[in-house]
Amino acid sequence: MEEYAEELRTPPVALVSLVGMPELHQTISASLHSEQPPINTLALPDFGKISIIAPKVKEAVDSGQSAAGILKREWLAKHRTRVPAVVAALFSSDGVTGDPAQWLQVCTDLENVKAVVRGRNIKLVVVIVQSSLRDEVSDDHMTALKKRGEIDSKYITTFLLSDTLEKRKSLQRLAAMFAELSNTYYREEGRRIKTRIEKKSWNCAELHIRYCFKVAVFAEFRRDWAEALRFYNDAYGGLHEMFGAPTKLQPIQRLVEIKTVAEYLHFKVSTLLLHGGKVDEAIKWFHKHIASCERLVGLPEVAFLHWEWMSRQFLVFAELLETSSAVIPSSVSANSGASGATLTEWDFQPAYYYQMSAHYLRKKKDSLEASLSAPETSEWRNPSESTALESIVPSIFVGQFSRVLEEGDLLTTLPVADAEYASYALAEAKRFQDSFEIIALYRKASESFTASKATRMASFCSNRMAREYYDTGDFTNAKRILDDIVGLYRRERWVALLWEALGYLRECSRKLGLLKEFAEYSLEMAALPLTEAPNGGGLSQRGVIQEEVLGPIKGETFMKVDQPIDLEVDAVSPLRTVFLASVAFHDQSVKPGAPATLTLSLLSRLPQPVEIDQLEIQFNQPACNFTLSSSTVKNQLSSSEEPPPPFLLTPGKWLRLTHEIQSGQSGKLECLSVAARIAPWCRIRCQADSPASMEASPSPSPHWKMLDEVQNSSTGDPILSAAGQKIIQIEEPDPQVDLILASSGPALVGEIFSVPVSVISRGHSVFSGELKINLVDAKGGGLITPREAEAAAGDGHHVELLAVSGTGEEEDDDDIKRIRHSFGLVAVPTLAAGESWSGKLEIKWHRPRTVMLYVSLGYSTSSGDGGGSAGQRVNVHRNLQIEGKTPLVLNHRFISPFRCEPLLVSKLRRRPDGGGGGGGDPTTVSLPQSEATVLIVSALNCCDVPLRCVSLSVEDPDGGGGGGAAVQAAVRHGAAAIASEVVAPGEEFKQFFSVVPPSESPGLELGHVCLRWTRDAGSGGGGGADSAVVVRQKLPEVKVEKPPLVVKLEFPPYAVLGDPLTFHVKVQNQTSFLQEIKYSLGDSQSFVFSGPHQDKASVLPRSEHVVSHKVVPLGSGPQRLPHVNVTAVRYSAKVSASAAASTVFVFPSPPHLDPEEEAS
Amino acid sequence: MIVCVAVVGQQNNPLYLQSFTDGDDALKFHHIVHCSLDVVEERVNNPKKSGPTLNEPFLGLLYPAENYKVYGYLTNTKVKFILVTTDLDVRDADARNFFRRFHAAYMDAVSNPFHVPGKKITTRTFVERVGAIVRSFGSTLPA
Fold it and tell me: Which family is this protein grouped under (chain B) (predicted)?
């Protein structure tokens, strides 16, 4: 678009000329230029210059019968820059009103202007410039001026400079006047020419076109786009008629001129349509334009001119479409689509036009090359000296050329002969580097297509771009671009396109000297599936390509390399079509050192048989790698299908080799790759596949699966193909190390239970040994993770691995790498054969649980100094079930003091029949205030081992020992109170305490019972108080209340037969009320007594009532006293002395007791 | 005149491509058919709102390519039929009629028990039949 002149590209703007008063020109020009629509100004500083716009003399010859050309090159520029629509003569008011000489000057100037203007029908405006209001020009002067200028009075105006407001008003007035007059001028001019068209006073088409063009331009000046479009259309129509009838004279130049004009007209029409928002119409118009001009190729020798022209049409339209893309309606494709309308989505894409432009430019290039080499054009290419091509210049007509002859100062133009013009055109065309232009156009199209997600179109453009690069010798760029696009062709399996692209890539690599790439592309090409490729991708050609790469070197330096190159074939490589390897072990696992059989299958799809000199098979254990060469394998081959030369790969047929290898180290043995030397300089390394995975997935060739003709099983053995794997598991060697876990019976909750572990080498040396310890709940409840509630309670685990210690000299914490609650990892020191190591696992039970202890030892048989895989890794596993048991069960109960019964109201309410002392419901034990109560704590051994109780105490809730005010140790059961005591299984250990609650309380904390115990030294385990296990158990809270009544029974410790004795029942009233009590005495066979059986009495507040009875024992031995019942009326509570409390021993005769004797 | 017809598979892989020109520019048609898949995709991804195109296999004019017009047809199984012609103005009915017959021929070819779906169509019968359909293109006689 840039090559078009400015006046053609932009819409025309009216032109106004200013004459005189040059100091004002700047102001007025700027003001007019900013008008909407703008007006251009042609400023003439003084009246002498007015002759510039005078018409030239020969201009009037327009009405001639024939024309030398269609459009004049200068005409449009002339009206835009030289011929104004309006001339404004500016006079200062001083000049008008001044002396007669000045007035005369004004009159002369006006005359001159008038004379010039008249010839062209230009409008005249007289402007009187007043510098102040006082300088007003009289009406007489105005009238005189009007008459002189022969203009309407409204076109004489004043221009006031007095102040800015006035000035602005004057400027606006001028602008309005100019706009009106220029409109009138252009309309009149247009009409004048229109009448000529209507009269048809000529018979040549050129003039018709020219006039139509002029009318259209004048309409454009007036911004009458509709009329402009109509006349441009008419002009194009006129031109169209000329297409069919080219003159015999100068046919080449004639065609060039017609097409240039057509291009101008088309550009104008397209611009107008696009600016009017009629995108569809513009595109349809363009198609019409192309369709009508397409066949105007002209002489084949200069066909390149036509193709260049075509290319320019597409380019310009693409640019137009792109710049006006903002106005393309989004719904534009609605009128296209399946309904069969002529426009498609692609017609709205500038990219399409860029692509077409590039296409035609390419055509031009080809055509130019043909012309340059054709014999017919030889005289054009080498013009004789007489035809000086430099003197050929564009003539005054659009699309025409002429020769300028210089004779002294005189320049004369002569027409050019077609032959001369053709030489000129060829010389001009040779100067341009079309390739760069083509590449730029294709790139633009490709980018644009990529942006609109049309990848295939973009690829096509890239393809063409690459070819252009290839043609210009830029192989690097060509290869880069093609590499990008072959992926698409591979993916969509467009063999023909791929073949073409690979062909170029191959040549690029060859030219660039890239041997590896060359080999890859060549092999891929050779292995492409056969199609009826249009460009001869037949079998023979493929064979030639293969031969070129793999065949013997025929003296070409290109193929000679020192180091053989490796072609890698991975899972996604396109070379999988070339070479494919599958490896299957016959077994799934094998003992270390034992032989393992594997079947190796190779497939090539190259068109000709491939001879392989050497096969290298690589494993993840490099020690197992092996190489097969044709000579060595002959003996080993067990496959019956071997062809006579063992390593001849026939196209499309699997070559199967069975081989036996010595299995290496334990673990996984995986075949990684198979490398085949297919040429002296080239080795192809293919990633190995399992036949099973190859059958299951489309892996043999992801791109060409659907084209495969032969695909029988790779191994030939159905079982192998279904289950064969390229991986074999090599088992571990049998361990020659003993791992012993010794356990000593059940573990007890709370103690640190140690499990001795010993590692004894029986042949293997142990290097970098590691002991893994794991504790698992035996019930299968997973790991010993507690429930959340228990976790919150404190100790996280039921069973915890505390520490692992070795008994070696380095018994240090360094040994312990990591100990978690249920998992531990310990390093075992290096052991030579025959040595041993032992350690201890310390495990603590928090709850009685049965756990499984798993211990595994992993070690290497040799030191790993040489490398990671130097030694075999061997694992030994052991496990042990250990039961956790509760050792001692703590119990307690409360007992009231002997023969003392405090009345506890709360107990009464709940259990009206009363009862003994403690023992009842442990949560609601009530104790009397300030009275001593006995607390018995017992520990029952419920495990199978004798335990030693070290101490049993009650700790104050605040932490202080000894029970504080509330609990005091009373009497111990047995003699050795402090020394530890052995409790046999099933036995009980007891301790007594006395509790005297100091004050009333609803919930008195008594503290914890704290029992320290150890295993009995005789039964193993750590002894002594140091390792004693402390068991704590909280005593329940007790209720302390003040007893209202306390009943005590008092009588002597013994009686003598026949001697009377007195027993008292004392009832203490601890309240401040009068308490009424009833009591009764039952009969007894052992005693006689006197007195009432029943009575009642009142006990005064805070006093004591004593009921005394004198009884005489009648029998000896332990005798029960008569049964006493005391009833408190207020509380309806009855107390009766228990049998134990009311038994007395009766001696038959008074005993003789000597205290001193007893003590001794 | 029809210069090329093609069948393109579900995964945009060519199943059958036949050109009917004497020149050696057959590769060009491979490019044209391949590029036309972009338009088919575009049509499929941005279906028109208007009702009649629903379930309509005929895609109409796909795009103008150099001096050719490319028409498309999309089956329910996403197999595409492409027609490249030099005629500037093809009647809709002709194109539809052509595609219908082409589709029928394709269906017969793939119904062959020896045909493997997704593979290229190579039967001679199909080639001959397509040749006949192409020759009769434009004639008003029904199939």
Answer: Belongs to the TRAPP small subunits family. Sedlin subfamily.
CA A552 vs CA A565, A977, A1117: distances in Å = 16, 107, 132
Phi–psi pair at A48, nearest 5 degrees: -65, -25
Looking up residue B76, the CATH number of its domain turns out to be 3.30.450.70
Distance CA A1021, CA A265 (A): 115
Closest residue in A to B90 (Cα) is: A340
Q: Give domain status of residue B143, yes or no.
A: no
Are residues B38 and A291, on separate chains, in Cβ contact within 8 Å? no
Q: Which residue blocks in A374-416 are alpha helix, DSSP H?
A: 378-381
Tell me which residue range forms the domain holding B100: 2-135
Query: At residue A732, what is the residue type?
Result: E
ipTM: 0.92
pLDDT tens, chain B, 143 aa long: 888 999 999 888 888 888 888 777 778 888 999 999 988 888 888 776 554 556 778 888 888 877 788 999 998 888 999 999 887 777 888 888 899 999 999 999 999 888 888 788 888 899 999 999 988 886 654 44
Q: Position B73: which residue type?
A: Y
Tokens of A49: 């210059």
Q: Which residues of A916-929 are buried (b: 16+ CB within 10 A; e: fewer)?
A: ebbebeeeebbbbb
Structure letter (DSSP) for residue A788: H
pLDDT digits (tens, 9 = 90+) for A320-348: 888 876 555 444 443 444 333 467 777 88
Residue ranges and CATH numbers for the domains of chain A are 1-244 (3.40.50.2300), 494-560 (no CATH), 565-730 (2.60.40.10), 737-883 (2.60.40.680), 888-1041 (2.60.40.10), 1045-1155 (2.60.40.10)
> Is B140 inside any structural domain?
no
The DSSP 8-state label assigned to residue A1101 in this structure reads T
Instruction: Map tokens 């041993």 to a residue.
Output: A836
* Cβ contacts of A495 on chain B, cutoff 8 Å: 14
Residue whose C-alpha is closest to residue B102's, from B85, B127, B68: B127
Cβ–Cβ gap B13/A339 under 8 Å: no
Q: Calculate Rg over the CA atoms of chain B.
A: 14
Is residue B142 one of the residues assigned to a domain? Answer: no
Q: % helix / strand / coil in chain B, to the nearest 5? A: 40, 25, 40
- Token pair listed for A1024: 């002594």
The C-alpha atoms of residue B72 and residue B62 are separated, in whole angstroms, by: 6
- What single-letter DSSP state applies at residue A652? T
- Copy the structure tokens of residue A438: 């083509």
Angstroms from A359 CA to nearest CA on chain B: 8
Number of helical (H) and strand (E) elements in chain B, helices listed first: 3, 5
Chain B residues lying within 8 Å of A455, measured CB to CB: 38
Helix H or strand E encompassing A845: strand A836-845
* Residue B42 resides in a domain: yes
User: How far does the CA of residue A879 sit from the closest CA of chain B (Å)?
Assistant: 58
Q: Are A1062 and A1108 in contact (CB under 8 A)?
A: yes
The sheet that has A816-819: what strands, in order across it? A747-748, A873-885, A850-860, A767-777, A823-828, A816-819
* ω into A718 cis (within 30 of 0): no
Distance CA A687, CA A865 (A): 31
* Structural domains in chain B (count): 1
pLDDT tens digits along A1008-1041: 888 888 887 654 444 444 567 888 888 888 888 8
Residue pLDDT, tens place only, A1069-1102? 888 888 888 888 888 888 888 878 888 888 888 8
Residues 487-516 of A with CB under 8 A from B: 492-497, 500
Tokens of B14: 């060519």
Does the beta carbon of A344 lie under 8 angstroms from any beta carbon of chain B?
A: yes
Q: Which chain A residue has the Cα nearest residue B12? A: A492
User: Token digits for A721?
Assistant: 């193909």
Return the number of other C-beta atoms located less than 10 Å from residue A336's C-beta: 20
